[in-house]
Structure formats: structure tokens, C-alpha cells
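Sample intake sheet
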Amino acid sequence: MLTGALVTVVGYLSPWFKVSSYYDWWFSGWGYAALSSSGGWTLWTLVWLTVAVGGSLWAGGSQAAAMTGLVSGLGAMMFSMAAVAASFSFLPERDSINYLAELPIGLGLPLLAIGLGLMVAGGCRAIAAGVLRSRPGTTDGDT
């Protein structure tokens, strides 16, 4: 879960795409945070990711930390996907969807997707492992 949260942070802050190859500004979480208005609601993604990293540090030993990490990871997923969707709304309207295939895409979107998947899968695994550990009559060596 920690690896997923850290990959998500890198993916969120890395460049996602720009409107065209001639456009200077890359859409990214870092781009939003660097705006003169300080990024506004997009900074909530970083808050959720910070809580997810904190929860993932103790997820192996605490059921509450695992649930906190998973819930904050899902919150980060919702806010980051809203930021990406809002970014796509800045694209000029075209008569063909093939235009999206021609966009300069950065490394941020694939890393964001991979990190979010790893974070949610790791959170589910940590919760399931905690439930199995807490069952009466089982030990860590039992499967």
C-alpha cells in the first residue's frame, strides 16, 4: 500500500498531458499547485495522499490504520480523477475522438493509474490480512 501511495504521489505531481505540442503548460497536480491561486481544491488530493501514506505505514499491524489508508486512498482517487477530468475539459472541441490519440501524454497519467491500483489493492489486502489474523484459533503460520 505504501508503494502504491508513493507512486500515486509521483504520478499526480508529474506531467499528465498538454493541449498540443506547442502549448507550454503541462496539466498536472504540480501545475495546479504552482498556480498563483495556490491550486484550490486540487490540493485536497495531496491531503488525501498524505493521510494514505501515513495509514499505510501502520497498515500491517493495525486494522484501523489499514482502513484509514484505504479510505484516504479512495478519497485521493476521487479527487485526482476529478482533477484529470477537469483538465480534459480544457481541450478544444473537435469533430473526431482521434484527436485524443495525438495529445502529448506525459508519464504522470500511467503512474497515477498504477499507483492508485496498487494503493487500493494493498489496502484491501491489509484489511483482509488483519481480519484473518484476528480470527480465533488461527496463528500467523496457518493458511
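Comment: The CA atoms of residues 95 and 101 lie 13 Å apart. The mean pLDDT is 86.
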